[in-house]
Amino acid sequence: MIIEVADLTKDFSRPDVRPGRFAGTRSLFTRARKVTRAVDGISFQIDDGELIGFLGPNGAGKSTTIKMLTGILVPTSGTVTVAGQVPWRDRRRNARTIGAVFGQRTQLWYDLPLRNSFEIIRDLYSMDPATYRTRLGEFTELLDLDEFIDTPVRSLSLGQRMRGDLVAAMLYAPRILYLDEPTVGLDVVAKGKIREFVAEINAGRGTTVILTTHDMDDVERLCRRVVIIDHGKILYEGDVGMLKAQYVTSRDVVVHCTDFDATTISSPFAQVVSADTFKATLRFDPEVTAAPKVVHDLTSRYPITDLSLLEPDLEDVIRQLYTERTPVPARGTGA
Amino acid sequence: MPVDTLSTRLTGLRGFYRAGYQSVLAYRADLLFGIVGLVIQATLTVVVWRVLFTGHDQVAGIGSATAVAYAVLAACLQAVVMPWQFSSLPLRVMRGQIGVDMIRPRSLISQNLAQAGGTMVGRLPLGAAGLVTGLALGAVKAPHSVLDLLVSVVSMALGVANILTINLLVSMTAFWTLEIGGIMILYRFGSAFLSGALIPLWFMPEWLQPIISWLPFQAQIYAPLSIWFGTRHGADLVGTLALQLAWVMVLFLLLQLVWRRAVHRVVVLGG
Ligand SMILES: Nc1ncnc2c1ncn2[C@@H]1O[C@H](COP(=O)(O)OP(=O)(O)O)[C@@H](O)[C@H]1O
Ligand SMILES: [Mg+2]
């Protein structure tokens, strides 16, 4: 167990400013404070070498949690242990254990070429020159840094900057990498590169990765286990596949045909949701009828040329989870 | 995993020190204009102060040559140490980078001081340009003795420590308000005047001198230069250095105090 979180809670308290004349000035004197509970008693554990997805809608408390895990924020109550240490108690010691990328922020030096930022980090973490050269070489290749490594950070595109930030966080080979929305606002190619890199440092180098994202493609491609939070509380914690199985109340099967009119198709196990001459989509409840049975029924009764079973969409599952907003008891693997 | 030794500490800070001067060098045109600017400033300073002194041998016991040399050296020194040059701290606070800076293996204070030290080194060419101009115009005076030279170098070092600390202190206002522009301007003009960079304390009104001579700012430029020109002797000289040292220590303590409040703001209130 490399990360243990128990009953973690964070309240933010701000001066309560009532709108009106001199609101700004009054805020300097007012004693009334408004408390927001950003994280509300969450507990979970992460194994060494895991790649875990940390999901939730905007304002759910993901970043606040990550900041407490990295030691940037001190919790209001509850405990966090990261690699045997309390992260905020000794930030400087904790520093070598963790790497962090906050999507909308950069840790790089704006005015300097990307390469200089890496050199500052090399010095900061007292890396020996040979290790530095080897690792930078590998990362350069993995992320195609060559074309922009000598460009000042301020002139980089978002995707390039993000790749630079990833390298900066991984150069000194921390055991744990925190990624807070690393793919937000990136194009497909840049996202792909970043996913490849994250997969490699996790599978190839055994780095534990905690990934916050809105992008379900990220999750489907990278994570086996997820923690989903909303309003500071855990909604689900466990296997991605189990989550789907539990939440998918309907699945779609699409059939194509050339020899007869697809609008005539019907099935005792499924409902037609759309049909035209060559193609029909049918929906069934997997809890009631197993997919093979539906497929068998259709293929045995109609001369179908092609049939595809649509994968349950994680996006839909998550959306449903957010709307219902009731915690799901984790089934299957979990921690 | 490297343990924290003096050597890893220094290596860690070397990166920031380099970032400091590299950031200056990254803006070549700025540096070039700065150099040209200092040549012009040094020339005008010499011309104007010489005109001011025509018809006077001495003002307030200070000879024309000393006054002119002071003005040139002060301009050079100020260009290098830039008492109003701030660290990148406010920018990093505003951009929200400060959180990551805090989970580095070196403290934020040493990160910033190292980087500011590097920035000063990067600005040395400006001072050199002003100095060469002053020399060419025959306006720079060497200290009376090697001892005066050595002591004034020590005093300059204390002055630099003073400037670095005050700059960082002022920069830390960024933790409390995003509108630091006004504070910066106030500090910039205040320190230019109170440090003796514009006018040496010699020429200030009698009632103002004792006040300014106890403030931390005079330790930045006036103290080292007044030693350079051999106007401090005996107890006065020792007292000047002692006051400089005392201010550096007080300011550093204050820095730790303010820093602790700032950390509290970030880690508890969330910045
Ligand atoms: N520094 C802060 N001060 C006050 N409220 C904050 C602060 N940071 C975050 N919050 C609030 O805490 C909640 C969780 O925020 P956050 O952790 O950033 O969510 P997420 O990253 O999941 O979008 C939000 O309601 C947000 O407005
Ligand atoms: Mg966030």
Short description:
The complex is a heterodimer of chains A (335) and B (271). In chain A, 34% of the residues lie in helices and 26% in strands.
Hey, which two chains have the biggest interface? Answer: A-B, 38 and 35 residues
Strand content of chain B: under 5%
The small molecules bound here are:
adenosine-5'-diphosphate, magnesium ion
Q: Segments of chain B where pLDDT lies below 50 for 5+ residues?
A: none
Number of strands of chain A: 13
Q: Unreliable segments of chain A (pLDDT under 50, ≥5 consecutive)?
A: 331-335
Structural class of chain A: alpha/beta
The secondary structure category of chain B is mainly alpha
Principal-axes shape call of chain B: globular
Q: What is the CA-atom radius of gyration of chain A, in angstroms?
A: 25 Å
Summary tags:
A: 335 residues, Rossmann fold, six-stranded mixed β-sheet, 11 helices, 13 strands, disordered C terminus, B: 271 residues, mainly alpha, two-stranded antiparallel sheet, 12 helices, 71% helix, globular, binds adenosine-5'-diphosphate, binds magnesium ion
What would you note in describing this structure?
The complex is a heterodimer of chains A (335) and B (271). Chain A has helices at 23-29, 62-70, 91-94, 114-124, 129-143, 158-170, 188-204, 216-222, 240-247, 291-301, 314-324, and strands at 3-15, 33-46, 51-55, 77-82, 98-102, 176-180, 208-212, 225-230, 233-239, 251-256, 271-275, 279-284, 306-309. Chain A is globular. Residues 331-335 of chain A have low confidence and may be disordered. Chain A is of the alpha/beta class. By secondary structure, chain B is mainly α. Chain B has one domain. Chain B is built from twelve helices and two strands, in the order ααββαααααααααα. Chain B has helices at 6-26, 28-53, 64-81, 89-94, 98-102, 108-122, 124-136, 146-171, 181-194, 209-214, 222-228, 234-269; strands spanning 58-59, 62-63. Chain B has a two-stranded antiparallel sheet with strand order 1-2. In chain B, β1 and β2 form a beta hairpin. The chains are: A alpha/beta (335), B mainly alpha (271). Chain A binds chain B through residues 12-14, 64, 67, 70-74, 88, 91-96, 98, 100, 102, 104-107, 109-112, 116, 119-126, 152, and chain B through 1-2, 4, 7-8, 11-16, 18-19, 22-23, 26-27, 91, 95-97, 99-107, 266-270. The site of magnesium ion (MG) has 3 residues of chain A, from α2. Chain A: GO terms for molecular function: ATP binding; ATP hydrolysis activity. Chain A: It comes from Kribbella capetownensis. Chain A: It is a peripheral membrane protein. Chain A: Pfam families: ABC_tran (PF00005).
